[in-house]
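Backbone-to-sequence.
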């Protein structure tokens, strides 16, 4: 079997396609949550804390300077404000995924809890019951 055929069989398996769809939807969902955090949640929090923009929160480890050769050397910073935003993103995504999985587990429990009705008697069993009933009458 050639490499291309093997790859085609692998790529067209149902679970691989499902995984690819999940990754694409997950990426889009991640961008939505990031926008929600950056554009909706963090600005009011920053305003409540005195007009702080979390993107600007940082600790400067080394100031920017111009070296003797005349080249501009940029500052070295720890951007903890961006880290805070990423943590909030993660917590929101984790919470939503938790709620989805929890809902799915509850639905599965309800389906498992439903008793299955006994199977209907087969045609042969019905005929045997009729014969039995006829013999009882005789």
């Amino acid at each position: 079997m050639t490499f291309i055929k093997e790859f085609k069989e692998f790529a067209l398996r149902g679970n691989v396609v499902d995984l690819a769809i999940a990754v694409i939807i997950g990426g889009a969902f991640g961008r939505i949550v990031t926008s929600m955090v950056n554009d909706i949640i963090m600005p009011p929090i920053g305003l409540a804390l005195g007009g702080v923009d979390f993107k600007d929160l940082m600790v400067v480890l080394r100031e920017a300077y111009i070296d003797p050769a005349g080249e501009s050397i940029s500052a070295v910073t720890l951007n903890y404000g961006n880290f805070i935003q990423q943590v909030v993103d993660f917590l929101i995504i984790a919470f939503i995924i938790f709620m989805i999985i929890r809902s799915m587990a509850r639905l599965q429990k309800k389906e498992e809890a439903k008793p299955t009705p006994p199977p209907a008697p087969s045609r042969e069993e019905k005929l045997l019951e009729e014969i039995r009933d006829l013999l009882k009458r005789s």
